[in-house]
Amino acid sequence: MVAVDSWEACDKLLEASCVDQAFEDSSESLLLRTADEIPGGDGEDVEPLTSGLGPAVDIRLLGGGLWPGEVVEVFGPAGSGKTQLGLTVAAHTAGRGHKVLFVTNKDLPASLAQRLHRICASRSKEPVEAEAVLSRIRVAMARDFPDLAQAILAFRDFAGSESTPAMLVIDGLTGILAPFTSAQSWAHRWRLAWSWRILRQLATSARVLLLSHTAGAASTGAELEPLGAKAQLALGQIWAGAASVRLELAPLEVSRVALALRKSRRKSLLGGDEAIASLWVPLLLDEAGVHVDLADIGLAATHGDGFHPTGTGAVAER
Hints:
alpha/beta, Rossmann fold, 10-stranded mixed sheet, 11 helices, globular
């Protein structure tokens, strides 16, 4: 991994990573393009990865699971369970033999490692299985944009060398990129454009999950069917085209949340715009991570791959 000691070094790193002429366009043309216009594979000939959140999430909200070529973003208010959801997906993906990089701007890596250990221990049948899963996950701290850029580029090189899909999870992305959304200088806006473009490029060979904050009032359980429009991305409209799939995580009550679909490229699989507007799944948060609330949805809790939610309903860390 190349050291990034200053903004100047960071910019040189970004310039060296540019793989096409699109980065030389104006900031407006870059930032107003939709996610579907970003180069990348459509993933239609590749099987999706299950998320580990339950069949209801994969089938109802994701059109089968986590597809290559798609950046999935989960947004919600502080304390809604985004980090626990990201850790759950990371543990599940690692449990299927894929390597995962979990980048955080919020929590200490040691704290996240402890939470991952509890999730893996709750979902694995044997202690040795949990240790094998943990060995495939790396946690990195990104205090600022140079740290994030360094982690993304290192992951890009790593993902390109893997024979099986790797996964990148970024938690606390809002804290790193928010200063750039209102910046007037081209340099700052270029960094924001670079971020979402390279994440889209990464998704062609790996799986990318972003965890972001909301601005304004959050949706509540009473507003989820049909979905309310109170919650907004903290990064604003300028970030709206970054993700091809966007899900809102909203609190229902203690240890229960709702995951609602806001945006998807797979409208035909999910029933069109009207159907998407009312698609949401209740989830439980406990020591096994985040998973389908079987009290509300009569679907099997296992994907048939050896990972089974076995939590008892204790309140999990958010």
